Amino acid sequence: MILHISHNDLDGVGCGILVKKAFGTNISTMYVTHSDTEDALKGDMSKYATVIITDLSLPAAHIEAIAGERELIFIDHHKSSEALAKHSFATHSIKECATLLTYHKLTEMGYDVSAYEDFAYCVNDFDLWLLKRDDSLRMNMLFSIYGLSRFEKRFLNEPYAGFTGAEVMLMSFEDERRRNYIHNAVKNIARHTDKQGRNFAVVFAESFTSELGNYVLENNSEFDYVVIINAQRQRLSIRSKKDVDVSVIAVNNGGGGHKNAAGFLLNSNFSANEILKTAGII
């Protein structure tokens, strides 16, 4: 039996689709947030001969401990896990997303996942924020519309060969909602300067994080990066210009990510007390 633990975003689920196509029904899959990963690893793994971990950056000690007990396949592209690249069980590169790395690894292992090559490159275009394809933003939009389980089922049943007519219609409605949402969100941009003298924007939003960050940076050249605060999920996301590394900010706060896209969880009382004090309630 195989246990597969992967991130619960588009890239992580892309890995899950490829792994299931390769190994069939002999696999148990867990999709987790970065903050839930260590708890997932504390579970009983005695019935699993092989553990596959994709699109998750974890402390080297945790990964090496698993590798010492059973077969391990570790595939990741986060800078924070590059120290594991020296191990034979690890596939690591910051130049490709985890889905594309998984595609290449499975192909190297002899599994035929060639029908998913275009899907893997589409996910790569979005996850690395290359945006050289017309369909990668829409692929992530479809992921948001369907949700994890339906999205996985859709592409397990049928490899990507373009979107269906019904999906195009759904995405047209969602695209209109996205434009309206971003238009309203940017009305309340706050401007700040950090300790290094870099200018950044702050926006409160709960949806379309990457698209919103990209819009703010493209239309406001004075900003080096944008901080997007999701009060509902208690998460702070950061998007930056290509030459600005914001991953350090995230790592210093217990989070992670990439050079130009990173984030971390906030304390549950991150602003509530200040708001209540200002309002004279407490």
Number of helices: 11
Instruction: Profile the largest sheet.
Output: 6 strands, mixed
* Strand order of the biggest β-sheet: 6-7-8-9-11-10
DSSP strand tally: 11
Quote the average pLDDT: 92
Beta content: 15-25%
H and E order: EHEHEHEEHHHHHEEHEEHEEH
**Gross geometry:** globular
Helix content, binned percent? 40-55%
Alpha-beta content class: alpha/beta
- Which consecutive residue ranges, at least 5 long each, have pLDDT under 50? none
The radius of gyration computed from the alpha-carbon positions, rounded to a whole number of angstroms, is 20 Å
Task: Set down the secondary structure blueprint.
Layout: E1 2-7, H1 10-23, E2 27-32, H2 37-41, E3 50-54, H3 60-67, E4 71-76, E5 90-92, H4 98-108, H5 117-127, H6 136-146, H7 148-157, H8 165-185, E6 190-193, E7 199-204, H9 209-219, E8 225-230, E9 235-240, H10 247-252, E10 256-257, E11 261-265, H11 272-278
Parallel strand pairs: 1-2, 1-3, 3-4, 4-5, 7-8
Antiparallel strand pairs: 6-7, 8-9, 9-11, 10-11
Helix pairs in contact: 1-4, 1-7, 4-5, 5-6, 6-7, 6-8
Give your account of this protein's structure.
With 282 residues, the protein is α/β, with parallel strands linked by helices. The chain is 41% helix and 20% strand. It is built from eleven helices and eleven strands. The protein has helices spanning 10-23, 37-41, 60-67, 98-108, 117-127, 136-146, 148-157, 165-185, 209-219, 247-252, 272-278; strands at 2-7, 27-32, 50-54, 71-76, 90-92, 190-193, 199-204, 225-230, 235-240, 256-257, 261-265. The chain has a six-stranded mixed beta sheet with strand order 6-7-8-9-11-10. A hairpin with a 5-residue loop joins strand 6 and strand 7. Helix 1 (10-23) packs parallel to helix 4, helix 1 crosses helix 7 and helix 5 crosses helix 6. The longest helix is centred in the middle third of the chain and has 21 residues, at 165-185. The model has no long low-confidence stretch (mean pLDDT 92).
